[in-house]
Amino acid sequence: MRLVVARCTVNYVGRLEASLPEATRLIMVKNDGCIAIHADGGAYKPLNWMNAPNELREFPDRWEITNPKNETLTINMLEVFSDAIHELGEDPGLSKDGVEAHLQELLAVDPSVIEDGLTLISREYPTAIGPVDLLCRASDGTTVAIEVKRRGEIDGVEQLGRYLEYLRADTSLGLIRGVFVAQSIKPQARTLAETRGLSWKEVDYDELRGRRKDDLRLFERDTQLERADFADVIRMNNDNVPAVSHIELDELEQDVRLARHALVIGDAPIRGFCTTFASGLTEDLGVNYAWFVARYPHFVYLDRVVIDDAHRSQGLGEMLYVEVERRIREEATTDLFVCEVNLQPRNDGSLRFHARLGFEQVGEQESKPGLIVAMLAKRLR
Q1: DSSP label at 105?
Q2: What pTM, to 2 d.p., does this model score?
Q3: Which of 5, 191, 203, 229 is 20 to 30 A distant from 300 in Cα terms?
Q4: Between the CA atoms of 211, 313, 264 and 117, what dihedral angle is there, to the nearest 10 degrees?
């Protein structure tokens, strides 16, 4: 791995355009060709990057990196402080495999499989030493940290214990306990968990897959928004003005007719919903949709997402985003997911939420007098 510390500026041109002003940064050139630019902070996520395969051309004052998608990353080297190469050797990688990741996803959809009454707060909840797989709320109001493994061994129990130490330092989470979950848990791991005051639970992966296929517990029935839902949607939407724009029945009917995705959570009444539009529509879908049309040929635009007030802080909004992203990847017509968030009046909670999900600001505009919005985009690559 090559590590370069330099004072630099960075420009990216591709599906989006982004730039970083002058600052001192760490530039990592990995053995597989990936290039990542880091600041002194922000945990693991780079400020910008270029995955392999790519071509790196070095000039006296800059680096130019291009890839087969005709994306270009230009790093203007103003002053180089350090340039070193280190041989790291083979890395075994994370233990989480496809089954384990899918197991976590299925349990996020219905945490009550682990314990009656559990509701999801967040997936991949961040701590200083890494993300907790699932953070949930129990029926008695306590916070529950859940570590998910395919095979339950002692190191997984110890990992959960370390997470709990950091989580308990955050008094806003209240009382916290831990549950270790796996398809099978070794007797030594069970004993250690009980000694440390942790619960454990074995789950059946095949049964969970069947549960999701048959019941769609996230959306509890067919995910498509139907006419029977319209009254709930209109009520829920208009209760959340000005966070979302007011809507009438004729507008909602048009939105559903044109929508790429029209999804709901729950039934009688629904707990949340979202609608998206694909690029290329000629109807008047508002100035924010038009802003993206003027700049990007292909995208999926999140028009509105609303969670009922009675069901907030249960991770339902994130579930809708995850489901939309899954469908975008499956459809494979674009890898660009876009939306906007209010800057004036400022919606700090929504801005933090979108940043955590990987959205980046690519512009801003006054969508109507007194309302300024940040235009956000996420590449699903």
Answers
A1: H
A2: 0.46
A3: 229
A4: 30
Give all strands (DSSP E) within 315-357, no chain letters: 336-344
**d(C-alpha 68, C-alpha 55), whole Å:** 9
Query: What is the C-alpha separation between 64 and 195, in angstroms, rounded?
Result: 55
Sheet holding 119-125, edge to edge: 119-125, 132-137, 143-152, 176-185, 199-202
User: With contact defined as beta carbons under 8 Å apart, do 323 and 293 qualify?
Assistant: no
> How many angstroms separate the CA atoms of 145 and 135, rounded?
5
Angle 376-379-381 from CA coordinates, rounded to 5°? 165
Q: What is the mean pLDDT of residues 27-54?
A: 82
Strand (E) or helix (H) holding 101? helix 98-109
Burial class (CB in 10 A: 0-12, 13-18, 19+), 186: middle
What is the band of 93 on the pLDDT scale with cuts at 50, 70, 90?
very low
Place of tokens 């529950």: 144
Please give the Cα distance from 92 to 105 (Å, whole number): 23
Residue 213: pLDDT band (50, 70, 90) is: very low
pLDDT at residue number 220 = 35
Q: What angle do CA 97, 100, 104 make, to 5 degrees?
A: 140
- Tell me which long-range contacts 362-369 makes (C-beta under 8 A, separation of at least 24): 362/16, 362/17, 362/18, 362/295, 363/291, 363/295, 365/287, 365/288, 365/291, 367/286, 367/287, 367/288, 367/340, 368/287
Q: Which helix (H) or strand (E) holds 363?
A: strand 360-368
d(CA 189, CA 318): 32
